[in-house]
Amino acid sequence: MTPRYELCGWQVESELPLPELPLVEEALSPRPDLTIRFGEVPESLPDLSFSGPLLQVGSDGTSRLALPGGLTFLVDRAGQQITIATKLPAGSPAIRAFLLGNVLGLVCLRRGGLPLHACCIALPTPEGEVAVAFTAPSGSGKSTLASAFVAHGCRLLADDLAVVSAGAAGVQVLPTFPRLRLWRDTMDIFGHSVEGSERVRDEMEKYSVPMGRAFARKPLPLAALYHYARVEDDRHAELRRARGIDATARFLDAIYQRRALLCAAAADQATPMALITRTVGAIPEHWVLAQPNGIARLEQLVERLIGKYGVAAEG
Q1: Comparing C-alpha atoms, which of 178, 158, 142, 151 is closest to residue 306?
Q2: Is residue 281 domain-shared with residue 230, that is, in the same domain?
Q3: CB pairs under 8 A, 24+ apart, for 28-33?
């Protein structure tokens, strides 16, 4: 029997083992929300609305993503099926790295969500947990920041890719993967053992650290979105509200693989822009946060934000 996993609140049936994801405890319906299988992927899609070096998009929204090393993905127009064609061994971490990154972004777009290049934490408040997300480019310390929150007893919703969904009740963050991807030095700082930890890619000193109970498995309302950066000099530190065009521009910059996603939406540019505008307007708080380097400063930031949103987490 093909196993089912939880991802973004969906039930995912996958021929590719996905050890990063929780197994489904009870099937909610005979049909999964998303199916992942191995199969053939055509060299070219018919009736293209976009064609680039790696990405092709058909006029119906079907997307084909070809990556170096003989790895190709096909995402159907509804974001309900992913087909993988590869020359790599089925257990290669590279397949899962691209599947749960670039390809997941395409699936989210097709399902009406928006992927952000962000980590996201569940913070306890007197009314229950809320989500607080931190956008930043790669290498800016999002996973280190998330690790600091987890060390203070908070739960993780997303490490590097946070999925937001706007609805009648506001914007929610969907839970992605119960793991952090940490560089070797960050592993040492937070007491994670490298021994037995899986590398994200064979050639990288970056490891996947499972979160277990420190993972929030249900969607949570987004209370605030922080656009996060680290600075060397205290004089460049800042914390200020972002509003209007500034908030929208920063949100656009934070969309995961933004160029590829907007190309994937080339057949219907109006729909994603309307979705972006609606989502930005429904987020209660947008902030610009420039944080001085250093673990001590990071600890101060984490404690301040935990206090801001309600009650202290259990350490």
Answers
A1: 151
A2: yes
A3: 32/4, 33/80
Report which secondary-structure segment, H or E, holds 198.
strand 198-199
Residue 57 lies in a domain: yes
Using the 3D structure, point to which of 52, 78, 110 is the last residue of a domain.
110
Domain count, the chain: 2
Of 172, 168, 173, residue with least CA distance to 156:
173
Distance in angstroms between the alpha carbons of the first and the last residue of the chain: 40
Q: Name, in order, each residue with C-beta under 8 angstroms of 25's C-beta and a sequence gap of 6 or more.
A: none
Phi-psi category of residue 110: left, alpha or beta, with phi > 0 → left and psi -120 to 50 → alpha: alpha
The tokens for 110 are 């097709």
Alpha carbon distances (Å) from 200 to 158, 162, 179, 180, 206: 16, 18, 11, 10, 6
Model confidence over 52-98: pLDDT tens digits? 899 999 988 899 999 988 899 999 999 999 999 998 887 888 898 89
Asked whether residue 314 is assigned to any structural domain, the reply reads no
CA distance 7 to 51: 29
Residue 268: predicted pLDDT = 61
Average pLDDT over residues 151-159: 93
Whether 122 and 199 map to the same domain: the answer is yes
- Domain coverage including residue 67: 4-110
Q: What is the pLDDT of residue 137?
A: 85
Closest CA to 285 of 244, 238, 225, 240: 225
CA pair distance 122, 21, nearest whole angstrom? 18
DSSP state of 23: B
Q: Which of 87, 110, 133 is the last residue of a domain?
A: 110
Report pLDDT for 289: 95
- Cβ of 122: how many Cβ atoms within 10 Å? 22
Task: Provide the residue type at 165 as one letter.
Answer: S
**Could you tell me if 282 and 154 lie in one domain?**
yes
